[in-house]
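Researcher: Let's run the pair from yesterday's discussion. Sequence first, then tokens, for each.
Model: Starting with the first of the pair.
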Amino acid sequence: MKPKVVITDSASADLSIELAMLEGRAEIVHGLGKSPEELKELLRDADAVLNCYTQLSEEMVDGMQRCKIIARSGIGVDTIPVGRATQKGIKVTNVPDYCIDEVADHTLALMLALRRGVDQGAVRARQGVWDLKGLTPIHRNAGCKFGLIGFGNIAQAVAKRARTFKFEIIVHDPFLTADAARAHDVKQLGLDEVLSQADVLSLHVPLNEHTRHMIDDASLRQMKPGAVVINTARGGLIDTTALLQALDEGRIAGAALDVLEQEPPHDLQAISRTRNLILTPHAAFYSVESMEELRTKSVAEIVRVLNGEEPKYWVNKKA
């Protein structure tokens, strides 16, 4: 009897990669469009689960009787109740390295769009306005401070790129050692120091109970009036209401968000009219190549576990 693999949903409407890798190895069952109760029933006798956007509840995981692995097609695992899966002995995996270059490039693109007035200038040019009047003041990047909250793989790639624009890199990450900071030529500071000193603040931490709304009204009030905020990580890291108010009041110079607390937001048109705010539709991770890598690596974890091997990107492995 072939093991049963439930695909709750996918990063792509095209499942050719997934089907090619699992064909002959497993019975493939599609869960896309199922109600929570229907999905719970499908998962009951699943040997493996491939998950992307669908939120798996603790109740769903509790009902799993044979599951060996839940493989997330993505970096974060906030769609999976990892603690409950761990209690049941279910391996949880992710793909932490599939879009490092894409997100780093996108972060720098948003930075330049804000600090060089690219978005404002393009809009004005399309409206037939061919002058600099009304643009937010533009300052030279060289010598300014690029603040990173979190210093994992993506943030390190951002730092490398930002350095080519002659930024000084300042970082807050409680897990960053002094030796690692020296090796990457970054200055390690406390969170309050990064907030108050950064000309560019870019977020690169996971979303959890400790980081939700870490950028709130109090945080924004610590920032320079000329600073900009960039978020290509998780929408919940920023209190959106507080950010929009700070922009409306001119307390910071701008913000660029690839992720929002709610996607898409109910009031997208209203939010998009906020002055000095750039929005992209959760696209920082995307390229044709990154999607192929994501899909291949996530399914490969299922294949490994079904073959009795350890997964490569085992999130809840005990030390």
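Model: Moving on to the second of the pair.
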Amino acid sequence: MQISSRFTIATHIMIVIALEAKDNRVTSDFLAGSVGVNPVIIRKTLSQLKKAGLISVARGTGGAAIEKELEDISLLDIYRAVGSLGKTGKLFSFHENPNPNCPIGRNVHAVLDDKLLQIQNAMERELAQSSLADVVAEAQMQIQEEGVGQNSFLKRNSSLSHPRDAY
């Protein structure tokens, strides 16, 4: 089983908004083109980020904007905003019915619960230490290393019907 992609989608959205909002309206269609998912998923994620106070969203085609300084938003803030841990608040979930008649099934929680909680806490500490500013700076570096200005594709292809077509 794989951990939900909500966090990476939300982080991708935040990076796009940080880099593009000054020059373009960052709409759900624009974001869907960059992230490569249905605009409905984007709108749900935007709603979660807005509810957490990380962004504002103008109705219609007004677009989204980040509400805090990039340095003041941690990856943990984004992670929590989109409910990446689900209803339990735990990174790891157990299968529901370990066999109590089996010595391993009977003891699996005692063996793993504390270890898995330590792993989750370590991951959350790492996320808390990384800011959106760090990630945006890294994205800008990657874009520069490719030799492509962040908006140069859009500028060279201004005949595109929608900015999302550039992604």
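Researcher: Give me one sentence on the second I can quote.
Model: DSSP finds seven helices and two strands in the chain.
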